[in-house]
Amino acid sequence: MSEDLQRATYSTPPRAMLETTTQRVRHWASDAVLRPLVEPVLHPSQWRIRALGFTTMLGHPLFWAVWELWLPQPHEDLFLRLLMAMLGLSLLVIPGSPRPPSRGSALIFSAVFWITLPWFFSWMYFCNGGNPVWLASMGAMLLIYYHLTDWRLATVGSASGLLVAWLMFQAIGPQAPPIGFETGAANAVVLGFCWSMGLILGLSSSNLRREQLNYTLGTMGIMAHELRTPLATMQLIAEAVRNEAPQHGGESGERLQQLGHRLNHLVRNMNHQIDMQITNARLMRLAGARERISAAELVRAAVNDFPYRNSRERQAVTVRVYHDFHFLGSRQMFAQVVDNLTKNALRSLAAASSAPVAGDLLIEVGAQGARGRIVFTDNGVGMDAELRKRIFQPFFSTDRGTGHGLGLAFCQRVVQAAHGSIRVKSTPHQGAVFTIELPAA
């Protein structure tokens, strides 16, 4: 018996090793390839865009002068150089350049970088017959492109830019000496080395940024958790004050009772906020629990437990259940989703000119076929189209005073992890409608 246990302990079947290896590869692919969360946060930065725009605008005319007048190359095109310079100028004059960038501006920046880097350098490489100057320029371009943007975009962009430039050269390119086999093979080795190094550096930089974000979020969670110690002391003080109140009759006892009640309410609110911050800090590592959750029960419990600032806020929230449904997910995470959306709606109502009344925040639960919906409708200040595009971006917040911009990004990731979707409809001064759609279980 002991020999069997030892063999079972120290020998690993090949199938188990294969399954373990497969799981590790899947985990790496999911973490490093399929979760492009960090790059939209950190790329492209406003300073980097303007620096690239400035150097592109000045660099192309300067290099035209070098390769045309000082060290002539077989083919130079002043018109094309000026066009690249104008694209660089566009990076300086595009209005806004928000940080983090909107989806539209990010697409414009990516297109400009694609034209001025992989396409242009590949075109000039073919036009000049793959000579040493443009071989070195292509290598430098690959390293710059991978350092400039996300490695996924750089990989697709460099391959597509090379292909499009080659096809255009075959169709409308100037007469250029053909690239021989030996020259082409040598150039391929050099460019392959530059490409592989750019890919490795891009991967390592991406992983480093992800680790830094994980550390930052983890620190937020730790700091929030440490606040529980002084809050526990405040809770004890509140209980002591309330116990002391009956011994002081009249107005003094009533004031002590009110003070103890206010301290209890404050501690409850702070603990709720701490729970929210700790949960939001798990943005990059959400729990994988798959519980069967009742949507109606979830919403009612979250609404009842929410720490309202006053009775008017509580009266403003109305819950309507037309048809309950069940779905699979993490109960704790989805309770936080309801909390975040409720908090945002109440904040929007507080920013409106009129005081909130009953029904100003309507939470509806319903189902149709195989899909269930949880809809949050508020009569708050609303938002414009540009804001709607950005509210789910991590670290973007409309509340610059206290908001960290993780709440709605967290909500989106939790809902998507349950194979659902979350969307928003809103116009300025006419409230907002957040709709969560989930597959019924």
Please describe what this structure looks like.
It is a single chain. With 441 residues, this protein is an alpha+beta fold. It folds into 4 domains: 2-27, no CATH class; 38-218, no CATH class; 227-280; 291-439, Histidine kinase-like ATPase, C-terminal domain (Heat Shock Protein 90, 2-Layer Sandwich). The chain contains 16 helices and 7 strands. The strands form 2 sheets. The chain has a 5-stranded mixed beta sheet with strand order 2-4-5-7-6. It has a two-stranded antiparallel sheet with strand order 1-3. A hairpin with a 2-residue loop joins strand 4 (361-368) and strand 5. Helix 7 runs parallel beside helix 9 and helix 14 runs antiparallel to helix 16 (407-417). The longest helix has 46 residues, at 181-226. The two termini are 45 Å apart.
For the structure shown, list the relevant keywords.
441 residues; alpha+beta; 4 domains; 5-stranded mixed beta sheet; two-stranded antiparallel sheet; 7 strands; 10% strand; disordered N terminus
List the helices and strands and how they pair.
Blueprint: H1 2-10, H2 14-32, H3 38-42, H4 46-70, H5 78-93, H6 103-127, H7 132-148, H8 151-172, H9 181-226, H10 228-244, H11 250-280, E1 291-294, H12 295-305, H13 311-316, E2 317-321, E3 326-329, H14 331-351, E4 361-368, E5 371-378, H15 385-390, H16 407-417, E6 421-426, E7 432-439
Parallel strand pairs: 2-4
Antiparallel strand pairs: 1-3, 4-5, 5-7, 6-7
